[in-house]
Design goal:
The complex is a heterodimer of chains A (433) and B (318). By secondary structure, chain A is an alpha/beta fold. Chain A has two domains: 213 residues, 3-Layer(aba) Sandwich (Rossmann fold), CATH 3.40.50.2300; 173 residues, 3-Layer(aba) Sandwich (Rossmann fold), CATH 3.40.50.2300. Chain A contains 16 helices and 15 strands. In chain A, the strands form three sheets. Chain A has a seven-stranded mixed beta sheet with strand order 7-6-8-9-10-14-15, with helices on both faces. In chain A, strands 2-1-3-4-5 form a five-stranded parallel beta sheet, sandwiched between helices. In chain A, strand 12 and strand 13 form a beta hairpin. In chain A, helix 3 packs parallel to helix 4. Chain A is globular. Chain B has one domain. Chain B is 78% helix and 1% strand. A two-stranded antiparallel ribbon of chain B has the order 1-2. The chains are: A alpha/beta (433), B mainly alpha (318). Chains A and B meet through helix 1, strand 2, helix 3 and helix 4 of A and helix 1, helix 2, helix 6, strand 2 and helix 11 of B.
């Protein structure tokens, strides 16, 4: 009978926990707009990336709810509905994220999920999102494959994919007359790193067919130790070293490579290099060519919206906003515009996910980093203008970005319906620069 | 007497299974999903408990968990086989087979050497999986939606149907396992745990029992991996990572080796604590989870199963 008793205990404890949790979850029949925000809050990607992104998001949500954001975002909350956000940690791998996503949608009944920095998570989430019919905004991740390999109804990415970052850097190197006779790369061994290196190396080959590829290094993501790789890069004597490392990995790489003179010896290019600048401060090397995955941070355009955001973030947190907060703000603004567009159409009611998805498709909106156009992936994938610059020291020894070249969105992004790699291989047909 | 006991177990299990299936209709979707996931983890924990009865703990059940998951996933994506029950069954058999192949090597080791060698297997598999780009590398891949006897359920019912299937299959496995535990090799395992040398002198083979136990554990782990993959709809090499294996060990320690249902209860507890700490303490969820693990080891050192046993023994004495 022991077994039977155990069974009874199993069932009764399940019922008890169930009753407890039903109380938790069915408490609010919300009138506002509830979003789940997924970003790195622990682990190596938290401090340089996830936390500043969420800081930017928190600030914007607070100001939106107070109605203190300049036009065209001056309506309170999302179309008058108060925004509630549930932050979730992105650490723990794609499998854990799928589960957290389900919890957000099924348990917390969020109206939309905004999130995902890691490309691995962005590959895993969309199919679940469509299965659960949950509106999902990917705010940062880079891999072009999300909307190139498949199409989704309820999933949108409000930021340009990684192809732009690497195409623009290749163009910059050539326009500025850098020696690109040999190139090497150090990129993480997963979707983002591999796609970034492919886009960069193929772009360079296309623009300068004689350049030679020396090393292609793929350390594991979040490995944090790059001694061997740095030695290999030093020995290869490549003229240009490309890296799409990000977050804690990029910080570690910079701190380990700088004393060994890598930045003095070779031209290093970072496709996503600005988000560690606030953290590293004066330790950031000079002479590095970098992109911020958009016109962000020190490369942001001089527009009223950007100046407002830059100042608001600076006042709140005491550091300048780099890529992560810009990206999250861009996602929130896109969502807000889509919701308000849907509300204009349905007469001001709270729109359902289908109405929002319809309004989101092909949406264009002004963000601090410039005009965002949902043009690729049949209106689900954004393109945006880009900027590349070079770090230098000002007279006080602070690191600044100079020699900034701006690129039109249509110059560095493929047109709708063409995969990024195919577009690069074909020699950028139809690029409007 | 054994037949009577078996009858009893079958009756009890059927009662419990039908109860859970009925309860599943009334509980929200997310809880159905969490229970399904707990069953997947519980299956692997059950495998470790099978080993624990013979005095061994595997730190590398991620190995079989991963093989099971990838078997189901690859059959789904490459061979177009999407029937969930078939996938679970094939993963069970295939992973059990792999277990049978490597078991003779592992069965020669004991204690920490066994644990470390099993861990090594899982990490080697992890290293291989993240390097194979054809199956997604470190990103893993998405599984096609599962079908049941050729019917693909609509999204609202998909979770519930998988829940029912997992309860049915786990119920059958649990009955068989309870029967196995009470069989001669099952009981010899307990003796091996106490005194291996004496078992050998009495004419039984500790080696054979360990191989058998490891094979069963592998099959169960594979089935758990397949179920987890099918439930999540996504598989990545994290399945075989040592932290995943660590969770299984924790589930088994939390459950103790005295009771089959306790394993699933332990898995459910862990799943709920993790999920709610992540929801309400997004910055410090690891801390909450860690405190929970420490507290449960301090206060229930020999597992939930023993905890219940003591409680009921006291109750009976009064």
């Amino acid at each position: 009978m022991k077994f039977f008793r155990h069974c009874l205990i199993l069932v009764s404890s399940m019922l008890v926990s169930l009753i407890g949790f039903i109380g938790v979850t069915s408490a609010d029949d919300h009138k506002g707009f509830k979003i789940g925000v997924v970003t790195f809050l622990s682990g190596p990607a938290a401090e340089p990336f996830g936390v500043p992104a969420w800081n930017g998001g928190k600030l914007l949500i607070k100001l939106l709810n107070e109605g203190k954001v300049p036009a065209p975002y001056n309506k309170k909350g999302f179309g008058g509905m108060e925004i509630t956000a549930i932050p979730i940690d992105e650490a723990g791998g794609a499998t854990k994220q799928v589960q957290e996503f389900r919890n957000l949608v099924q348990r917390d009944k969020v109206d939309a999920v905004l999130g995902y920095v890691s490309s691995g998570d962005c590959m895993a989430i969309p199919s679940v999102a469509d299965e659960l019919q949950a509106l999902t905004v990917l705010y940062d991740c880079g891999t072009p494959r999300v909307f190139e390999d498949a199409s989704y109804k309820y999933v949108f990415r409000t930021a340009a994919h990684a192809a732009m970052d690497n195409i623009a850097i290749a163009k910059y190197l050539i326009e500025k007359g850098h020696d690109i006779s040999s190139i090497a790369g150090i990129n993480q061994n997963y979707a983002w790193g591999k796609d970034s290196w492919k886009d960069f190396s193929v772009s360079i080959k296309k623009l300068s067919p004689n350049s030679e590829i020396k090393n292609e290094l793929f350390p594991k993501i979040f490995s944090g130790q790059y001694g061997t790789e740095i030695s290999a890069l030093m020995n290869s004597k490549a003229k240009v070293v490309h890296s799409s490392l990000w977050g804690g990995d990029l910080q570690s790489f910079i701190l380990q490579a700088k004393p060994r003179g890598l930045f003095k010896r070779t031209q290093v290019v970072f496709s996503a290099g600005d988000h560690v600048m606030p953290g590293l401060g004066k330790q950031y090397p000079e002479g590095v060519i970098l992109g911020a995955r958009g016109q962000y941070g020190m490369m942001a355009p001089d527009t009223p919206l950007n100046n407002w955001f830059y100042k608001a973030y600076m006042d709140e947190y005491g550091v300048f906003p780099a890529q992560p907060p810009y990206r999250m703000v861009q996602g929130l603004m896109g969502l807000k515009m889509a919701i308000e567009k849907a509300m204009d159409k349905n007469g001001g009611k709270k729109p359902n996910k289908d109405e929002i998805a319809e309004a989101f498709t092909g949406l264009e909106f002004e963000a601090p980093g410039g005009l965002v156009q949902m043009k690729l992936g049949n209106g689900h994938q954004a393109i945006q203008p880009h900027a590349i610059g070079k770090t230098a020291k000002d007279k006080d020894g602070n690191i600044i970005v100079t020699d900034i070249v701006r690129y039109k969105a249509s110059c560095v992004n493929p047109p709708n319906g063409i995969n990024a790699v195919d577009w690069i291989n074909a020699g950028f047909p139809g690029a409007d620069c | 007497m054994p037949l009577k006991l078996l009858n009893n177990v079958i009756f009890q299990s059927i009662f419990l299974m039908s109860l859970l299936i009925v309860v599943g209709i009334f509980i929200p979707n997310w809880l159905v999903f969490v229970i399904t996931k707990a069953i997947a983890y519980g299956l692997v924990g059950l495998g470790i408990i099978t080993l624990m009865r013979g005095g061994l703990v595997s730190f590398g059940q991620g190995f079989v968990f991963g093989i099971g998951g990838y078997t189901a996933g690859l059959l789904g994506t490459q061979a177009g086989l999407t029937d969930a029950m078939l996938l679970l069954f094939i993963s069970f058999l295939f992973t059990g087979f792999i277990g049978l192949i490597i078991a003779p090597l592992l069965a020669r080791y004991r204690d920490i050497f066994f644990a470390m060698l099993s861990l090594a297997f899982s990490m080697v598999l992890y290293g291989i999986l993240i390097k194979i780009d054809a199956i997604g590398g470190s990103d893993g891949f998405v599984l096609p939606e599962s079908t049941y006897f050729g019917i693909s359920p609509s999204p609202e019912y998909a979770d519930y149907i998988l829940y029912v299937v997992s309860i049915l299959m786990t119920g059958v496995v649990s009955i068989l396992l309870r029967y196995y535990y009470n069989s001669t090799p099952g009981l010899i395992a307990l003796a091996v745990r106490e005194n291996e040398l004496r078992v050998e002198y009495l004419g039984s083979s500790a080696f054979n029992v360990t191989v058998l136990n490891f094979t069963i554990a592998a099959g169960l782990g594979g089935m758990g991996g397949a179920l987890n993959g099918i439930a999540l709809g996504h598989i990545d090499p994290e399945f075989t990572y040592w932290t995943t294996s660590g969770e299984f060990v924790f589930i088994s320690i939390l459950a103790g080796y005295l009771s089959v249902p306790a394993v699933f209860l332990a898995a459910l507890f862990l799943e709920l604590v993790r999920s709610f700490s992540g929801r309400y303490f997004p910055d410090t969820w690891q801390l909450i989870l860690g405190v929970f693990l420490i507290l449960s080891i301090i206060f229930i050192p020999s597992g939930i199963g023993s905890f219940f046993k003591q409680f009921f023994d006291k109750f009976k004495n009064k």
